[in-house]
Amino acid sequence: MLRRIVINLRRQDWTTVGVELIVVILGVFIGVQASNWNEARTADNESKVFTDRLKSDLRAEAFAYELSVAYYGQVLANARRAEAALSGRSEMGDEALLAAAYRATQYVTNNRHRTTWDELGSTGNIGLIRDPGLRQLAADVYTDTNNEWLVDDARRSPYRLEFRKLLDIPVQDALATACGDHTGKDGDYASLAGYLDYPCDPELTPEAAAAAVRALRADPNLLPLLRLQITTVDTNLGGLDSTNNIQLRQRLQAFAGTTR
């Protein structure tokens, strides 16, 4: 094409030169437009894929948030029942007291679902999430550390360590088997109410149950540590529903289409 244009220039065939230049310009323009269209289509496809992945991750985060609130609420309720019985303010049967005291030691971990968000951040492609509300929700969820504090304090709880040191292993095994977590499926909100608080029977002999309760009552450290456990869990649990975090929880609930 260029050789033909040069030849026509030498001939001063301006009409032909003009037509051929127009053809070249149109060709370049169409090529650029096609390239831009292809890049835009690729970006649109990537945006859809990453947006769908992020939404799936945030739905998992919404469930994990509700699981933490429900689970540690049940831990706290059992701790309060055990403390009232050990303090003499209420009466409980030996097995019921052991179950409550055991459940007060429990904690649950939630794996964060942040692979998509981290990938977008590390590659500088956060802009592929074109919904500003979705971007802001993800940013707020993945910078929130309240749940990590809650789990860390529960795992390192001095009361948990003290309780686990006191009871014979067969008693602890019986409690874990009969009164441990009832794990539901991810996304099953109906299962949260009975995750830890449900009727249980560790099937201990009356003698074994009585001996275990005597061990709890005889330890001078257990009751003060249980009270510390109550205040710690209560404070950390309140962090999930504090003035700052209640809005985050409500936004997650709205996103996931749930209300609690």
Describe the model.
The chain is an all-alpha fold and 260 residues long. The protein has helices at 2-11, 14-87, 94-103, 115-123, 132-143, 146-155, 158-166, 169-179, 206-218, 222-240, 243-256. α2 runs antiparallel to α3 (94-103), α2 runs antiparallel to α10 (222-240) and α3 (94-103) crosses α9. The radius of gyration is 32 Å and the shape is rod-shaped. It starts with a helix and ends with a helix. The model has no long low-confidence stretch (mean pLDDT 87).
Order of helices and strands: HHHHHHHHHHH
For the residues shown, what is the average pLDDT? 87
Poorly predicted parts: none
DSSP summary: helix tally: 11
The overall strand count is: 0
Instruction: Report Rg.
Output: 32 Å
Q: Which of globular, elongated, flat, extended, rod-shaped describes the shape?
A: rod-shaped
Going by helix content, strand content and strand pairing, the class is mainly alpha
Task: Kindly state the percentage of residues in helix.
Answer: over 70%
Q: What is the CA–CA distance across the termini?
A: 71 Å
Portion in beta strands: under 5%
Biggest sheet, in brief? none
Quick recap:
This protein is mainly α and 260 residues long. It is built from 11 helices and no strands.
List the helices and strands and how they pair.
Layout: H1 2-11, H2 14-87, H3 94-103, H4 115-123, H5 132-143, H6 146-155, H7 158-166, H8 169-179, H9 206-218, H10 222-240, H11 243-256
Keywords:
260 residues, 11 helices, mainly alpha
